[in-house]
Amino acid sequence: MSNVLTGVGQSSHKDSFQAGREAAESALADLGGSPRLSIIFGSCRFDHRQLLAGVDSVVGQIPMVGGTTAGEIFTSGFATQSVVIMMLSSEDLTFATGLGKNMSHDERACAISLAESLFKKAGAGNALSLVVFPNGMGGDGVRFIEGLHSVVGKEI
Question: Is the sign of the CA dihedral 50, 51, 57, 61 positive or negative?
Fold first, then answer.
């Protein structure tokens, strides 16, 4: 079993860059290791390019996933108009990210392109899990999962 460390940070700073920076600094301090992946959920009020630039200024170019929210849940409660970051660290696991596009146009094709891009980056041989954040407002989630299964199989 691999050892996975986690650290969580949150910020309600008004400035998008500073919010990303503040949340990342807090998550990094809580982590106790070198970050390998950031999972970020932030309010729609942020300029997301600036928010991610703030995160990058602290941790550099590591894989990031996440999305926008109407509310954020973190270790000390619930907030709105904030950003929450969870960082993961592991000496045994590797992480890869991918992006599927145009889910509202064709859910299945979106999932297939996502899975194929991940396999090009990381391969599928040792894959243990796949976490996806499909557009909840933009299509049929069942068709999206069917598209994933057509590439990765139903074992993942």
Answer: negative
Burial (CB count <10 Å: 0-12, 13-18, 19+), residue 32: exposed
Q: Which sign, positive or negative, has the C-alpha torsion 40, 152, 109, 113?
A: positive
Q: Is residue 104 a contact partner of residue 139, using CB atoms and an 8 Å limit?
A: yes
Please give the C-alpha separations between residue 87 and each of 10, 36, 110, 119, 151, in angstroms, as whole numbers: 12, 7, 26, 23, 28
Query: Considering only 14-18, 43-47, 105-109, which range has the smallest mean pLDDT?
Result: 105-109
Check if the beta carbon of residue 28 is closer than 8 Å to that of residue 9.
Answer: yes
The answer to whether 150 touches 143, Cβ cutoff 8 Å, is no
CA 64 – CA 101 distance, rounded (Å): 17
96-99: long-range contacts, CB 8 A cutoff, minimum separation 24: 96/63, 96/121, 96/122, 97/63, 97/64, 97/65, 97/121
What is the tens place of the pLDDT at every residue in 112-141? 999 888 888 876 666 667 888 877 766 788
The pLDDT score that the predictor gives to residue 101 is 84
In the chain, the amino acid numbered 36 is R
Return the SS3 of 42.
strand
